[in-house]
Amino acid sequence: MAKIKKIKLNNFRNFKKFELSFNSKTNILFGDNGSGKTNILESISLISKGRGIRNSQLANFIRKNEKKFLISSQLEIDNNSYDIDIFNDYKDDKYKKFIKVNNDSSKESLNFVYSSLSFLFFLPEMERLFQASPSSRRNFIDRFIFSYDKEYNKLINKYKKFIFERSKILKNSHIDLNWINFLENEISKHGLKIYEFRQKQLINLNKQIKDLNSLNKYEFKIELNIQDSFYNSDLNLDNYLVSLHNSRESDKILGGAKIGPHKSDIDARINDTFDASNLSTGQQKTVVLMLILAQCNFLINQKKIQPILLLDEICSHLDVYNRKLLSDMINNLDIQFFLTGTEKSLFSFISTNVNFYNITDL
Q1: 121 CB burial (10 A radius; 0-12, 13-18, 19+)
Q2: Is 354 helix (H, G, I), strand (E, B) or coil?
Q3: DSSP string covering 97-165, please?
Q4: What domains does the chain contain, in order, with CATH numbers?
Q5: Dist. CA 147–CA 120, nearest whole Å
Q6: Count of CB atoms within 10 A of residue 274's CB?
Q7: Confidence of residue 165 (pLDDT cuts 50, 70, 90)
Q8: Is it the case that residue 206 has pLDDT exceeding 90?
Q9: Are 28 and 344 in contact (CB under 8 A)?
Protein backbone atom coordinates (compact mmCIF):
# COMPACT_ATOMS: atom_id res chain seq x y z
CA MET A 1 0.00 0.00 0.00
CA ALA A 2 1.52 3.30 -1.14
CA LYS A 3 0.85 6.77 0.28
CA ILE A 4 2.28 10.18 -0.61
CA LYS A 5 3.59 11.68 2.64
CA LYS A 6 5.32 14.85 1.44
CA ILE A 7 6.18 16.76 -1.70
CA LYS A 8 8.66 19.55 -2.46
CA LEU A 9 8.61 21.50 -5.71
CA ASN A 10 11.48 23.50 -7.14
CA ASN A 11 10.98 25.51 -10.34
CA PHE A 12 7.95 23.42 -11.22
CA ARG A 13 5.18 25.20 -13.16
CA ASN A 14 4.24 28.34 -11.16
CA PHE A 15 6.16 27.30 -8.04
CA LYS A 16 9.67 28.56 -7.28
CA LYS A 17 9.80 26.65 -4.01
CA PHE A 18 6.89 24.85 -2.41
CA GLU A 19 6.44 22.12 0.18
CA LEU A 20 3.47 20.24 1.68
CA SER A 21 3.00 17.24 3.98
CA PHE A 22 -0.12 15.14 3.45
CA ASN A 23 -2.71 13.17 5.36
CA SER A 24 -2.69 9.45 4.64
CA LYS A 25 -6.43 9.58 3.88
CA THR A 26 -8.01 12.74 2.42
CA ASN A 27 -6.27 15.93 1.29
CA ILE A 28 -8.19 18.92 -0.04
CA LEU A 29 -6.39 21.71 -1.88
CA PHE A 30 -8.47 24.85 -2.30
CA GLY A 31 -7.78 28.33 -3.55
CA ASP A 32 -8.12 30.81 -6.40
CA ASN A 33 -8.02 29.73 -10.02
CA GLY A 34 -4.42 29.83 -11.21
CA SER A 35 -2.95 29.36 -7.73
CA GLY A 36 -1.43 26.00 -8.71
CA LYS A 37 -3.81 23.36 -7.33
CA THR A 38 -3.77 21.29 -10.51
CA ASN A 39 0.00 21.71 -10.78
CA ILE A 40 0.37 20.00 -7.39
CA LEU A 41 -1.77 17.07 -8.53
CA GLU A 42 0.28 16.90 -11.70
CA SER A 43 3.55 16.81 -9.75
CA ILE A 44 2.21 13.89 -7.68
CA SER A 45 1.15 11.99 -10.81
CA LEU A 46 4.65 12.34 -12.28
CA ILE A 47 5.98 9.91 -9.66
CA SER A 48 4.60 7.19 -11.89
CA LYS A 49 5.53 6.43 -15.52
CA GLY A 50 4.63 8.93 -18.19
CA ARG A 51 4.03 12.68 -18.36
CA GLY A 52 1.41 13.11 -15.67
CA ILE A 53 -2.33 13.68 -15.61
CA ARG A 54 -2.23 16.32 -18.36
CA ASN A 55 0.28 14.45 -20.55
CA SER A 56 2.23 17.68 -21.01
CA GLN A 57 5.56 18.17 -22.72
CA LEU A 58 8.43 18.12 -20.22
CA ALA A 59 9.46 21.65 -21.19
CA ASN A 60 6.11 22.90 -19.88
CA PHE A 61 6.90 21.68 -16.36
CA ILE A 62 9.87 24.04 -16.02
CA ARG A 63 9.21 27.41 -14.41
CA LYS A 64 9.70 30.34 -16.78
CA ASN A 65 13.35 31.45 -17.18
CA GLU A 66 14.63 28.30 -15.45
CA LYS A 67 16.32 25.24 -16.98
CA LYS A 68 15.32 22.39 -14.70
CA PHE A 69 12.56 21.36 -12.33
CA LEU A 70 12.84 19.10 -9.31
CA ILE A 71 10.05 17.23 -7.53
CA SER A 72 11.16 15.63 -4.27
CA SER A 73 8.57 13.40 -2.65
CA GLN A 74 8.42 11.04 0.29
CA LEU A 75 6.51 7.82 -0.24
CA GLU A 76 5.38 5.30 2.29
CA ILE A 77 5.11 1.79 0.86
CA ASP A 78 4.11 -1.01 3.23
CA ASN A 79 5.24 1.10 6.22
CA ASN A 80 8.67 1.79 4.70
CA SER A 81 9.76 5.28 3.64
CA TYR A 82 11.25 6.09 0.24
CA ASP A 83 12.62 9.38 -1.08
CA ILE A 84 11.71 9.94 -4.73
CA ASP A 85 13.31 12.63 -6.91
CA ILE A 86 11.86 13.50 -10.32
CA PHE A 87 13.77 15.90 -12.52
CA ASN A 88 14.54 16.74 -16.14
CA ASP A 89 17.69 16.85 -18.21
CA TYR A 90 18.38 17.86 -21.78
CA LYS A 91 19.85 15.04 -23.86
CA ASP A 92 19.87 14.25 -27.57
CA ASP A 93 18.18 17.57 -28.34
CA LYS A 94 15.18 16.93 -26.12
CA TYR A 95 14.09 16.99 -22.50
CA LYS A 96 13.95 13.68 -20.66
CA LYS A 97 12.38 12.76 -17.34
CA PHE A 98 14.48 10.99 -14.70
CA ILE A 99 13.51 9.37 -11.40
CA LYS A 100 15.68 8.32 -8.47
CA VAL A 101 14.56 6.17 -5.55
CA ASN A 102 16.66 6.78 -2.44
CA ASN A 103 19.23 8.25 -4.85
CA ASP A 104 19.18 5.07 -6.93
CA SER A 105 18.07 5.10 -10.57
CA SER A 106 18.45 1.36 -11.23
CA LYS A 107 15.76 -0.43 -13.20
CA GLU A 108 14.95 -2.58 -10.18
CA SER A 109 14.29 0.46 -7.96
CA LEU A 110 12.14 2.16 -10.58
CA ASN A 111 10.12 -0.97 -11.29
CA PHE A 112 9.50 -1.36 -7.56
CA VAL A 113 8.02 2.14 -7.32
CA TYR A 114 6.03 1.80 -10.54
CA SER A 115 4.56 -1.52 -9.43
CA SER A 116 3.69 -0.07 -6.00
CA LEU A 117 1.89 3.02 -7.32
CA SER A 118 -1.41 3.27 -9.14
CA PHE A 119 -3.17 6.55 -9.90
CA LEU A 120 -6.75 7.17 -10.96
CA PHE A 121 -7.81 10.71 -11.70
CA PHE A 122 -10.65 13.00 -12.65
CA LEU A 123 -10.14 16.17 -14.69
CA PRO A 124 -12.83 18.81 -15.40
CA GLU A 125 -13.00 17.95 -19.12
CA MET A 126 -14.24 14.47 -18.19
CA GLU A 127 -17.60 16.01 -17.35
CA ARG A 128 -18.27 15.91 -21.10
CA LEU A 129 -16.54 12.60 -21.76
CA PHE A 130 -19.43 11.15 -23.75
CA GLN A 131 -19.76 14.23 -25.96
CA ALA A 132 -16.02 14.48 -26.61
CA SER A 133 -14.07 12.72 -29.37
CA PRO A 134 -13.77 8.91 -29.46
CA SER A 135 -10.06 9.26 -28.63
CA SER A 136 -11.04 10.78 -25.25
CA ARG A 137 -13.06 7.69 -24.38
CA ARG A 138 -10.36 5.33 -25.64
CA ASN A 139 -7.78 7.16 -23.52
CA PHE A 140 -10.09 7.01 -20.50
CA ILE A 141 -10.33 3.22 -20.73
CA ASP A 142 -6.64 2.85 -21.58
CA ARG A 143 -5.68 4.75 -18.40
CA PHE A 144 -7.77 2.27 -16.40
CA ILE A 145 -5.81 -0.60 -17.97
CA PHE A 146 -2.52 1.20 -17.29
CA SER A 147 -3.51 1.52 -13.62
CA TYR A 148 -2.76 -2.19 -13.14
CA ASP A 149 -0.56 -3.03 -16.14
CA LYS A 150 2.37 -0.63 -16.49
CA GLU A 151 3.49 -2.32 -19.73
CA TYR A 152 0.25 -1.47 -21.54
CA ASN A 153 1.49 1.92 -22.74
CA LYS A 154 4.39 0.19 -24.48
CA LEU A 155 1.87 -1.90 -26.40
CA ILE A 156 -0.06 1.21 -27.45
CA ASN A 157 3.08 3.10 -28.46
CA LYS A 158 4.47 0.20 -30.50
CA TYR A 159 1.14 -0.15 -32.28
CA LYS A 160 1.12 3.56 -33.18
CA LYS A 161 4.73 3.34 -34.40
CA PHE A 162 3.93 0.43 -36.74
CA ILE A 163 0.89 2.28 -38.12
CA PHE A 164 3.08 5.33 -38.79
CA GLU A 165 5.81 3.28 -40.49
CA ARG A 166 3.30 1.50 -42.72
CA SER A 167 1.76 4.82 -43.71
CA LYS A 168 5.17 6.16 -44.77
CA ILE A 169 5.88 3.09 -46.90
CA LEU A 170 2.51 3.24 -48.65
CA LYS A 171 3.33 6.73 -49.87
CA ASN A 172 6.46 5.51 -51.65
CA SER A 173 6.30 4.65 -55.34
CA HIS A 174 8.23 1.41 -54.76
CA ILE A 175 6.95 -0.65 -51.83
CA ASP A 176 9.20 -3.11 -50.02
CA LEU A 177 6.74 -6.02 -49.78
CA ASN A 178 8.74 -7.90 -47.16
CA TRP A 179 8.85 -4.85 -44.90
CA ILE A 180 5.19 -3.92 -45.26
CA ASN A 181 4.16 -7.55 -44.69
CA PHE A 182 6.23 -7.54 -41.50
CA LEU A 183 4.65 -4.26 -40.34
CA GLU A 184 1.12 -5.45 -41.05
CA ASN A 185 1.81 -8.62 -39.11
CA GLU A 186 3.01 -6.55 -36.12
CA ILE A 187 0.05 -4.17 -36.43
CA SER A 188 -2.35 -7.13 -36.42
CA LYS A 189 -0.71 -8.83 -33.40
CA HIS A 190 -0.57 -5.61 -31.38
CA GLY A 191 -4.06 -4.55 -32.47
CA LEU A 192 -5.56 -7.86 -31.35
CA LYS A 193 -3.88 -7.52 -27.95
CA ILE A 194 -5.27 -3.99 -27.51
CA TYR A 195 -8.76 -5.17 -28.43
CA GLU A 196 -8.43 -8.01 -25.92
CA PHE A 197 -7.25 -5.71 -23.12
CA ARG A 198 -10.08 -3.25 -23.73
CA GLN A 199 -12.75 -5.93 -23.99
CA LYS A 200 -11.66 -7.50 -20.69
CA GLN A 201 -11.56 -4.06 -19.07
CA LEU A 202 -15.14 -3.28 -20.14
CA ILE A 203 -16.36 -6.68 -18.93
CA ASN A 204 -14.77 -6.02 -15.53
CA LEU A 205 -16.27 -2.53 -15.31
CA ASN A 206 -19.74 -3.77 -16.27
CA LYS A 207 -19.56 -6.41 -13.54
CA GLN A 208 -18.38 -3.92 -10.92
CA ILE A 209 -21.13 -1.46 -11.89
CA LYS A 210 -23.77 -4.17 -11.44
CA ASP A 211 -22.32 -5.03 -8.03
CA LEU A 212 -22.36 -1.37 -7.01
CA ASN A 213 -25.97 -0.93 -8.09
CA SER A 214 -27.01 -4.02 -6.15
CA LEU A 215 -25.65 -2.43 -2.96
CA ASN A 216 -26.51 1.23 -3.55
CA LYS A 217 -29.34 3.25 -5.01
CA TYR A 218 -27.35 4.98 -7.73
CA GLU A 219 -29.03 6.93 -10.49
CA PHE A 220 -27.88 4.87 -13.46
CA LYS A 221 -27.28 1.39 -14.74
CA ILE A 222 -24.36 1.46 -17.17
CA GLU A 223 -23.25 -1.00 -19.81
CA LEU A 224 -20.05 -0.37 -21.77
CA ASN A 225 -19.22 -1.88 -25.15
CA ILE A 226 -16.61 -1.44 -27.86
CA GLN A 227 -18.15 0.29 -30.88
CA ASP A 228 -16.10 -0.77 -33.89
CA SER A 229 -17.38 -2.04 -37.26
CA PHE A 230 -14.20 -4.06 -37.77
CA TYR A 231 -13.92 -5.72 -34.34
CA ASN A 232 -15.88 -8.83 -33.38
CA SER A 233 -15.32 -11.93 -31.27
CA ASP A 234 -14.23 -13.94 -34.33
CA LEU A 235 -11.47 -11.53 -35.35
CA ASN A 236 -8.15 -13.33 -35.70
CA LEU A 237 -4.68 -12.71 -37.10
CA ASP A 238 -5.44 -14.06 -40.57
CA ASN A 239 -8.51 -11.97 -41.32
CA TYR A 240 -6.88 -8.92 -39.71
CA LEU A 241 -3.96 -9.30 -42.15
CA VAL A 242 -6.30 -9.73 -45.12
CA SER A 243 -8.19 -6.57 -44.17
CA LEU A 244 -4.97 -4.55 -43.85
CA HIS A 245 -3.77 -5.85 -47.22
CA ASN A 246 -7.07 -4.96 -48.88
CA SER A 247 -7.04 -1.45 -47.45
CA ARG A 248 -3.59 -0.49 -48.73
CA GLU A 249 -4.85 1.64 -51.60
CA SER A 250 -7.31 3.63 -49.51
CA ASP A 251 -4.81 3.98 -46.65
CA LYS A 252 -2.23 5.26 -49.15
CA ILE A 253 -4.59 8.11 -50.02
CA LEU A 254 -6.03 8.82 -46.58
CA GLY A 255 -2.97 7.97 -44.46
CA GLY A 256 -2.86 5.81 -41.34
CA ALA A 257 -5.08 2.74 -41.30
CA LYS A 258 -8.85 2.75 -41.60
CA ILE A 259 -9.23 -0.31 -39.37
CA GLY A 260 -7.94 -1.16 -35.91
CA PRO A 261 -8.35 -0.24 -32.24
CA HIS A 262 -7.27 3.36 -32.94
CA LYS A 263 -10.64 3.74 -34.72
CA SER A 264 -12.76 2.29 -31.91
CA ASP A 265 -15.24 4.14 -29.74
CA ILE A 266 -16.61 3.19 -26.32
CA ASP A 267 -20.39 3.05 -26.13
CA ALA A 268 -22.04 3.66 -22.74
CA ARG A 269 -25.66 2.52 -22.60
CA ILE A 270 -27.68 4.03 -19.74
CA ASN A 271 -30.58 2.16 -18.09
CA ASP A 272 -30.86 -0.05 -21.21
CA THR A 273 -32.50 2.81 -23.13
CA PHE A 274 -30.19 5.61 -24.30
CA ASP A 275 -26.59 6.59 -24.87
CA ALA A 276 -24.58 8.53 -22.29
CA SER A 277 -24.04 11.32 -24.83
CA ASN A 278 -27.68 12.33 -24.22
CA LEU A 279 -26.99 13.06 -20.55
CA SER A 280 -26.47 16.50 -19.06
CA THR A 281 -22.98 17.57 -17.97
CA GLY A 282 -23.76 16.76 -14.33
CA GLN A 283 -25.19 13.37 -15.26
CA GLN A 284 -22.13 12.53 -17.38
CA LYS A 285 -20.05 13.37 -14.33
CA THR A 286 -22.12 10.87 -12.34
CA VAL A 287 -21.34 8.17 -14.90
CA VAL A 288 -17.62 8.97 -14.86
CA LEU A 289 -17.49 8.90 -11.06
CA MET A 290 -19.35 5.58 -11.03
CA LEU A 291 -16.77 4.17 -13.46
CA ILE A 292 -13.91 5.45 -11.31
CA LEU A 293 -15.48 3.89 -8.22
CA ALA A 294 -16.00 0.63 -10.13
CA GLN A 295 -12.35 0.64 -11.21
CA CYS A 296 -11.27 1.27 -7.61
CA ASN A 297 -13.23 -1.77 -6.48
CA PHE A 298 -11.75 -3.85 -9.29
CA LEU A 299 -8.19 -2.81 -8.41
CA ILE A 300 -8.66 -3.37 -4.68
CA ASN A 301 -10.62 -6.62 -4.81
CA GLN A 302 -9.26 -8.32 -7.94
CA LYS A 303 -5.76 -6.90 -8.38
CA LYS A 304 -4.92 -6.25 -4.70
CA ILE A 305 -3.88 -2.72 -5.67
CA GLN A 306 -4.86 0.34 -3.63
CA PRO A 307 -4.90 3.29 -6.01
CA ILE A 308 -4.34 6.94 -5.16
CA LEU A 309 -7.15 9.19 -6.41
CA LEU A 310 -6.45 12.65 -7.86
CA LEU A 311 -9.73 14.54 -8.33
CA ASP A 312 -9.29 17.99 -9.87
CA GLU A 313 -11.97 20.71 -9.53
CA ILE A 314 -14.30 17.98 -8.45
CA CYS A 315 -17.02 20.18 -6.95
CA SER A 316 -18.56 21.61 -10.13
CA HIS A 317 -21.97 20.07 -10.96
CA LEU A 318 -21.91 18.38 -7.57
CA ASP A 319 -25.55 17.40 -7.22
CA VAL A 320 -26.93 14.99 -4.63
CA TYR A 321 -25.94 11.91 -6.67
CA ASN A 322 -22.37 13.06 -7.23
CA ARG A 323 -22.01 14.06 -3.60
CA LYS A 324 -23.15 10.57 -2.57
CA LEU A 325 -20.66 8.97 -4.95
CA LEU A 326 -17.79 11.04 -3.56
CA SER A 327 -18.87 10.32 0.00
CA ASP A 328 -19.07 6.59 -0.74
CA MET A 329 -15.57 6.64 -2.23
CA ILE A 330 -14.01 8.51 0.67
CA ASN A 331 -15.90 6.73 3.44
CA ASN A 332 -15.71 3.18 2.09
CA LEU A 333 -12.32 2.96 0.39
CA ASP A 334 -9.13 2.70 2.44
CA ILE A 335 -7.04 4.67 -0.05
CA GLN A 336 -5.50 8.14 -0.29
CA PHE A 337 -7.39 11.03 -1.92
CA PHE A 338 -6.32 14.40 -3.29
CA LEU A 339 -9.16 16.78 -4.20
CA THR A 340 -9.08 20.36 -5.47
CA GLY A 341 -11.66 23.15 -5.56
CA THR A 342 -11.93 26.91 -5.35
CA GLU A 343 -13.47 27.12 -1.85
CA LYS A 344 -13.20 25.14 1.37
CA SER A 345 -16.96 25.32 1.92
CA LEU A 346 -17.57 23.20 -1.19
CA PHE A 347 -16.21 20.21 0.74
CA SER A 348 -18.37 20.62 3.85
CA PHE A 349 -19.85 17.14 3.31
CA ILE A 350 -16.39 15.64 3.99
CA SER A 351 -15.76 15.86 7.72
CA THR A 352 -13.46 13.11 9.02
CA ASN A 353 -9.75 12.40 8.60
CA VAL A 354 -9.16 15.26 6.19
CA ASN A 355 -6.51 17.95 5.80
CA PHE A 356 -7.31 21.26 4.14
CA TYR A 357 -4.67 23.38 2.38
CA ASN A 358 -5.32 26.95 1.24
CA ILE A 359 -2.99 27.10 -1.77
CA THR A 360 -3.65 30.80 -2.33
CA ASP A 361 -2.09 31.66 1.04
CA LEU A 362 0.87 29.26 0.86
Answers
A1: buried
A2: strand
A3: EEEEETTB--HHHHHHHHHH--EEEE-GGGGGGGGS-HHHHHHHHHHHHHTT-TTHHHHHHHHHHHHHH
A4: 1-118+306-362 (3.40.50.300), 125-304 (1.20.1050.90)
A5: 7
A6: 11
A7: very high
A8: yes
A9: yes
Q: What is the DSSP letter of 244?
A: H
Supply the pTM of this predicted model.
Answer: 0.95
**What pLDDT was estimated at residue 341?**
96
Instruction: Report the distance separating Cα 33 and Cα 44, nearest Å.
Output: 19
Residues for the chain: how many in total? 362
Q: For 40-61, how does the pLDDT look when each residue is reduced to its tens digit (9 = 90+)?
A: 999 999 999 889 999 999 999 9
Instruction: Decide if 79 contacts 15 (C-beta within 8 A).
Output: no
Asked whether the predicted pLDDT for residue 174 surpasses 90, the reply is no
Bridge partners, 337 (sequence order): 26, 309
Amino acid at 335: I
Residue 12 DSSP SS3: strand
In this structure, the number of other CB atoms found within 10 A of the CB of residue 196 comes to 12
